[in-house]
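Exercise: predict the structure of this protein bound to adenosine-5'-triphosphate.
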Amino acid sequence: MKDSVLVFGGTFDPIHVAHLVVAEEAADQLGVGRVVFIPAASPPHKSRAVTESGHRAAMLEAAIETNDRFTWDACEIERGGVSFTVDTLRELGSRWGLDSRELFCLVGGDSLVAFRTWREPDTILTLATLAVAGRPGFDDRSIDRSLQGHVHYLETTPLAISSTEIRRRAAEGRSIRYLVTDPVRDYIERQGLYHG
Ligand code: ATP
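Solution:
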């Protein structure tokens, strides 16, 4: 069997340590050799303006550079427009020749609550296996019942960290140390991101 791959899509504005911990633990539990982070060009479920993709990708690259299993792919940025998971899984599954048993898609349980509003949800389930990480404040039981049997529930360390909170702290001049890796914090400071 081919080496399985875990795809982890997000806005990553900025990438924080909970993203990294969850990805690492998911990779161990699923036995995948590679985790591919996919920064969204324009995420469908976020109404606010997101930081320019070049900055988000640079922070992602800085965050994962010391982990041999972690890599990232610019497919959604290159495709442009609104980033739909179904398009990404179709593109990557066919590029890598992986079926739904070999291609995993990591999502936080909070994102999955609205799964039926995603574009082509049933097609997504034929392309990949959803791997779901719990998120503090989120109740697993609110996940759509139609997903039972298609979802692999992970045991990940609960970390109540969000990009929203990090942006807020940075804007208020408060410390974001340890919520993001040092290279990401340096990048944010150097580029003056999120400051007011
Ligand atoms: P924002 O606060 O800007 O909405 P976020 O912290 O939710 O951002 P995203 O980049 O939107 O980060 O998240 C990408 C994916 O990571 C989503 O599937 C989300 O559910 C998951 N995720 C983010 N933070 C956590 C966390 N602390 N624990 C588990 N999953 C998380």
